[in-house]
Each structure stands twice: as C-alpha cells, then as structure tokens.
Design brief:
This protein is 37% helix and 26% strand. By secondary structure, the protein is of the alpha+beta class.
C-alpha cells in the first residue's frame, strides 16, 4: 500500500486513542530494537503500544506535530513480543493489527469491508500550499463562530501543522496566539474551556462502515499554558540549587539522564519500601521503555534530586490536561502534577522537607503553573504527611485504574503560608545553566 494511506491511518488513530508515544534514542537493554534502530539510523520513532495483544509498532518520526498531523518515514515495523521478531508492515497489515486490538471494544468492526475498500481511505496530503494568511482567516472565522465548528477546528490545526512542518512558524506559538485571540474576543468561547475536543475519528468510522464516530482529543489550544522548562527541559545540567542552613545541606535538581540514571533508579524502585507504593519494580528493559517514551514527550518529565551532590530522590512533573487524572476532576490547563520518591529509608538521610520544598520551588517558579496537583496512594501515610507539611490539602479520594488515591491540591499561597520565607525566593539563571535561589 502507498505510504500516504498508512500516514493518514496512523494520524487518525493517534487523534482517537492514547496508547502511543514518541520513543527516543537507541535502547541499551533491548538488543532487537537497538540493532534495528542502529541500522536505520533513526533516533526518534512513534511507538504504538499494542502489548495487550502481544505487539508494538514503530515508525521513524520525521516531524512531530503539536496539532496532531505527524510526518513519518518508512518502513513501519511491527514487533511480536513473544518472539522479538520485527517485520515491516503496510497499511493493510496495520489495519489488521488495529482491528485485533479494538475488537473487544468494537465487535461490530467490519474488517473484510475495510480491507476490500482500502483504496477509498481518505489520505489527505500533509504538505500543502498555505500561508499565514490562511491561518489568520481561519482564526477570524473561529472568532465569529458562536460555538466550536469541527471543520474550522480541523482546518486550523492542519494549517498550523503545515506551517510548522514547512518551518514558516512555530506550532506552539501559533496555538498560543489562537488561544489569546479567542480569549480576547470571546472569553466564554467553548474552545477555551474544553479539555477535550470532539474530533471525528476517520479510522473507526471507516472500519465501522457507518456514521462518523467521534472521540475526545486533547485540546491543542492549551499549549498557551505549556511549561517547556518543566516538561521539555534543555540539556542535562542542574536547573535548581538551594542551600538550607538549618540542615546544612544543598539540594540540587537536574533533568533525568537515561544513560546516567536508569540503573540507579532501577535499584531504587526495587527496594522493599518502593515496591508496594511506587510499583515500578520492573525489569530494566521495561523501565528503559518507560523513560524513552516519557522524556521526549509533551506530557511529563522526570528529575533527579541531589543532596550535596548525591542523588537521593526522584520526582516527575506532569501536565494534568495530558494525563488521565484530568478525567477525575475539572482540571485546568495551568494544573501541573508531581510524583515524588525518596530513596533512603534512614531518616537522617531522607531530608524530606528540603527535598519537597525544592520541588515546589522549582515548579512554582514557572509562570504557567496555577496550582500543583497530587494523587498519592491512600496506602502511603508518609506521602500524605509530607504533602500536608508543605501545604497540600486533600480534596477527596478517587479511584484510579491502578490505585485508590488522595486527590490533593496546593497553591503558591498555601505553600508560602507554611514557609513564609520561601515567598521571597528568586531564581536566577547562571552561566552554568543551573538555577540558584536566594532569600
């Protein structure tokens, strides 16, 4: 099959489902993928996670679009997890894999009809002849529309993707401008409030053979509140450092370095106190996949905290509107969540309060952050007490797919009420690229 069909299918699939991610680099603990990626020379792939049926699909990613129209190189490959065998796939085979994956949820899928009519698959070319004038005209139409019009939203996103791919403009900047224009002229416009947009899923409609099927799609306009400092930090140097005179320690924070930190956190997560609560005591190969699919993405990032230069704790920052947690409360695009794991069990080495204060200092230093969110397991009393110590308040108990959790929030004012001296902390970028704090 021609590659435009496969490109269109995968873009449609990604707009409807969440079991995909970017995959960065050549793995150290997965020899099959390492050999293949080294031979093809690609450092960035799109990974489609079909592990529930024993498969995964990888595509060389030429351009990742913030608007949902990604550009790939080929061939795409499928891996049978039971045998580790890699095989190239075309559009027809991809359709078989998707149908197998979805058959439990959509037993009415008409695979034979889909395969027989594959030539009719809508395969719009990503590249086109558009300009900033097209973008501005689409914004003007949206400003005049009393409610979000699906065709206008789809057209806007496609125009933004083309301008970004052709390097005529930055996608995130255009999405931010679109949000600001709507906010200025129509502050109550539904597009500003929606965490999810109702976008037609052409792939499911095509498989179903009937009416258009709609599925929720993360609102790209929320990029107006995206913090690249938190979710896509540059480099591997320290981003924060603070001296705590009472404890006579310096706490530093740096982005997770998969080559330096993977084996270390693997050992941390396999400690007895981590297994029950953290639940990431996975094999190295699985843990490596977790980080290689998280770090290049736009939903979360991992950090290592150090005490006097010694790695001591790990925390993750995630953008709630790109996380499943947003389905459990009325999340705002300014909400950022954290997970924190302190490795030592010796109370004299934990330094829980300075470590947690440093985490909050770093997150609240970003102007895009409105409030911090947590969802610690109800089984972890220590985590609950640590969060309460710095100002978090429990909203309610929620049932997540993998745990019962305390949904808790913290605003800057609540944090500063606990530690008034921290209100006056200012951050400064140094020539070493670290952020120091002074009081």
């Amino acid at each position: 099959m021609a590659t435009p069909h496969l490109t269109a299918m995968i873009n449609s699939y990604c707009r409807a489902f969440i079991n995909w991610s970017c995959y960065e680099g050549i793995p150290q603990y997965d020899s099959t993928l390492a050999g293949y990626f080294a031979a093809t020379g690609y450092q960035l792939h799109l990974r489609l996670d079909f592990t529930t049926i024993g498969k995964e699909v990888f595509l060389p990613l030429r351009y990742f679009s913030e608007s949902g129209y990604h550009v790939f190189d080929f061939p795409a490959v499928e891996r049978e997890l039971a045998t580790d065998q890699l095989v190239p796939i075309d559009a027809a085979h991809f359709l078989v894999v998707v149908t197998e994956y979805l058959k439990d949820s959509y037993p009415q899928l008409r695979l034979r009809q889909a395969l027989d009519n594959l030539a009719a698959w809508p395969a719009p070319a990503l590249l086109g002849d558009v300009s900033m004038a097209s973008y501005n005209a689409c914004i003007d139409n949206l400003l005049q529309a009393p409610a979000p019009k699906i065709h206008l939203v789809q057209r806007l996103l496609r125009i933004i993707a083309i301008l970004g791919y052709q390097q005529q403009a930055d996608e995130t900047t255009l999405l931010q401008q679109a949000y600001q224009s709507l906010e200025q002229h129509q502050p109550d416009h539904p597009l500003l409030q929606a965490n999810r947009l109702s976008i037609p899923c052409e792939l499911l409609s095509f498989l179903h053979g009937e009416e258009v099927i709609y599925r929720p799609f993360p609102n790209p306009l929320h990029k107006a509140f995206f913090s690249p400092a938190l979710i896509q930090p540059k480099g591997k140097d320290h981003v924060y450092s603070r001296y705590f005179p009472k404890e006579n320690i310096t706490v530093s924070i740096r982005p997770f370095d998969i080559d330096r930190d993977l084996e270390m956190v693997h050992e941390w997560f396999n400690r007895e106190h981590a297994k029950k609560i953290w639940k990431m005591d996975w094999p190295l190969r699985e843990l490596e996949t977790y980080y290689r699919t998280m770090l290049p993405g736009n939903a979360a990032h991992s950090y290592i905290g150090e005490i006097d230069g010694t790695p001591t704790y790990n925390f993750e920052v995630y953008w709630v509107v790109r996380d499943l947690l947003c389905d459990y409360y009325d999340a705002l695009p300014t909400d950022y969540g954290t997970h924190q794991f302190i490795a030592p069990v010796d109370p004299k080495q934990k330094f829980a309060s300075p470590s947690t204060q440093s985490m909050l200092d770093w997150v609240f230093a970003q102007p895009q952050v409105g409030k911090m969110v947590g969802e610690g397991s109800v089984e972890s009393l220590a985590a609950l007490m640590n969060k309460a110590h710095v100002g978090f308040r429990v909203e309610r108990v929620i049932e997540l797919p993998h745990k019962k959790a305390n949904l808790n929030f913290c605003y800057r004012e609540w944090y500063w009420a606990k530690f008034p001296e921290n209100r006056h902390i200012t951050t400064q970028k140094q020539t070493t690229h670290a952020t120091t704090v002074s009081i």
